[in-house]
Structure formats: structure tokens, C-alpha cells
Write a structure and sequence with these properties.
The protein is mainly α. The chain is built from twelve helices and two strands, in the order αααααβααααααβα.
Length: 326
């Protein structure tokens, strides 16, 4: 069956959204790696606060130009989102610090089944057998590529648990709020970025001090480190916006599944720019599995019955269930 011009337009926009997210996400990883590893700016939570401050400035400019409406989200919904989002940021930073890289990667992979669980419980989504198998192939492939030297302790496990659930809820809530309030990505980002920036800049330096035993105000700033911080903030605007666009157009599960393409690209770029020491047969095999799984997931989930929401699930029911659970 041939696609209509409307379908072709949607496919093109979907592809552009994913490419936008991949490019900005990989870019910010490379810049932050240089900033933290080379120049010693290890204040990840504070840096994220600066990211959202820059994003807030961008949303104010877009509002003045008429691209963002003056939509207001109820304070309760806004506070829930900021709570999940901030716990996600702190939880991921603490998890990376307290756990081995292998367990950290396992924690990131486990966000996919958690996101699936949230969609099944709140949205009454049903997955076909083929869709489930494709997700397993993605998990297997990324796991082969990234998971090694797995060790965990009690504190690290708790941090990873908090990170997994808060990140999954934050990503689910982006899609939920856009559907519930019928607002676009720009509008939602304009509502959520300011309180996130304020809270992270207020508490971020304290959190970073607890994690690194270093104070952000005592860091020796150089022209190069300041330039990298500004570049990181500029790229973060695109990263934040592209995340909202992608989750709004798709779902948290699709965002997680296809988002692992960024992991594969980071590995490839690492081999290109930093040598091929870690490149071996099992890594290449894992990459092949992951890419095949992502392609399979895209095909399977788009088929009739591949991934569908129960007709009995309405926005009102969803709102009530989420309010009761959270």
C-alpha cells in the first residue's frame, strides 16, 4: 500500500525529529566529556541547571516572537514533572558515580521495560509478540556492546533504582502532559524549563559538592572552559527541545528504544577519534544486533496491532490513574 503525501510528510518530520535529537545528544556528550575529563568541570547537576537556564532564555525569545502560546499547566502537574525530572538528573549522576560502568549501562537498559510497564498500566497499551521480540533484540545488542565489569553495592543499587523510575516517569509525563493539555513541544518546554532551571541552580551546587567534594565557585575558570560551558548550554537547548518533540510525536518507549542509536553512535565516534582498543568482535556483533532490533521495532510497532492503546482507556481515566498512583 503506497503512502499518501500526508504520510510521507509525517515520516519526513519523524525522521527529522530523530536526527535532530541524535545529533544534539551525541554533540553534548562529546562536549561535556571534554569539559569534565579534560578541564575538570565535574559539576554535572549545576551544568544541567545552566542548560535549562539557557533553554528558558530561548523559550522567552520564542514566546516574544509568537511561537509559544501563553498556555498554563496546573501547578500540581508542573511540580510532578519537575520532581521526576530533577530526581532523574541527580539519580543518573549518583548512579554513574557509585556504580560500575557495566551496572550503569544495565540500569539504562532497564528503562525500556519500565517504560513499557508504565504504558501498559496507565495507557492500556498492548504489544504484539513481534514488537516484544524486537525490544529484546535491542536490549541484547546494546547489552553486548556496553555491559562489562558489572559490580554493584547497596547505595549504588538504590541510586540506580531511583534514576530508572524517575527518568521513565519524566519521559512518560512529557507525552502525557502534551496529550492531556493539548499543547505542543515548545509550549510544554516553555512551562517546565524555568522551574527546572531555578531548582537545579539553587540546589545543584550543593548536590555537586556532596558528590565531588568540590565547590563550583572555587573552580578555576579559563577562556576555553567557559567557551565549552557556553557551547554545552547552546547544544542543550536543542537537546531539550528535541526530546520533547520526539516523545510528543512518539512515546517514551519508542524514544528509549530508538534512543539507543545514540549509544551506538557514541561508541563508533569513540573508536574513530580515540582509537580502536575497545573495538572487537563482540562489540561489532552487539552493534549489528542493536541496529537490526531498532529497525525491526520500527516496523513491528507500526503494523496493525503491533502497539495499540485500548479503546477503553480515555484521557480522563489516565489522569485519574496517574494521580492515584503518583
Amino acid at each position: 500500500m503506497s503512502l499518501s503525501s500526508k504520510d510521507h510528510h509525517k515520516v519526513a518530520l519523524d525522521a527529522a525529529a530523530w536526527m535532530f535529537n541524535i545529533v544534539t545528544s551525541v554533540g553534548i556528550i562529546l562536549v561535556n566529556k571534554a569539559l569534565m575529563a579534560t578541564y575538570g568541570f565535574t559539576f554535572a547537576t549545576t551544568l544541567t541547571g545552566l542548560h535549562f537556564a539557557a533553554t528558558t532564555a530561548m523559550t522567552l525569545i520564542l514566546r516574544s516572537l509568537g511561537y509559544i502560546q501563553s498556555t498554563r499547566i496546573p501547578v500540581a502537574d508542573l511540580l510532578k514533572f519537575v520532581f521526576f525530572a530533577n530526581f532523574s538528573i541527580v539519580g543518573m549522576n549518583v548512579s554513574l558515580m557509585w556504580n560500575s560502568v557495566g551496572f550503569y549501562q544495565i540500569a539504562k537498559l532497564s528503562m525500556i521495560p519500565v517504560a513499557c510497564f508504565l504504558e501498559v498500566v496507565f495507557d492500556r497499551v498492548r504489544y504484539s509478540r513481534e514488537t516484544k521480540l524486537s525490544i529484546l533484540v535491542v536490549l541484547l545488542g546494546v547489552g553486548i556492546c556496553t555491559v562489562n565489569d558489572v559490580s554493584v553495592n547497596a547505595n549504588g543499587f538504590i541510586a540506580a533504582f531511583i534514576a530508572i523510575w524517575s527518568t521513565s516517569l519524566q519521559q512518560y509525563y512529557v507525552h502525557f502532559l502534551q496529550r492531556k493539555h493539548s499543547i505542543g513541544s515548545f509550549d510544554l518546554l516553555g512551562q517546565t524549563a524555568p522551574p527546572q532551571a531555578a531548582s537545579l541552580l539553587l540546589f545543584g551546587p550543593y548536590v555537586d559538592y556532596l558528590l565531588t567534594d568540590k565547590a563550583v565557585n572555587e573552580y578555576h575558570y579559563t577562556p576555553t572552559s567557559v567557551m565549552l560551558i557556553l557551547l554545552s548550554c547552546a547544544i542543550a537547548i536543542g537537546t531539550n527541545l528535541s526530546q520533547f518533540i520526539c516523545i510528543g510525536r512518539f512515546t517514551a518507549v519508542s524514544f528509549q528504544v530508538l534512543g539507543h542509536m545514540k549509544t551506538i553512535l557514541v561508541l563508533i565516534l569513540g573508536f574513530i577519534f580515540f582509537g580502536k582498543e575497545g573495538l572487537n568482535l563482540h562489540v561489532v556483533l552487539g552493534m549489528i544486533f542493536a541496529v537490526v532490533g531498532m529497525i525491526w521495532y520500527g516496523h513491528a510497532s507500526s503494523q496493525p496491532g503491533g502497539k495499540e492503546r485500548s479503546q477503553s482507556s480515555s484521557n480522563n481515566n489516565l489522569e485519574n490513574e496517574l494521580d492515584e498512583e503518583i
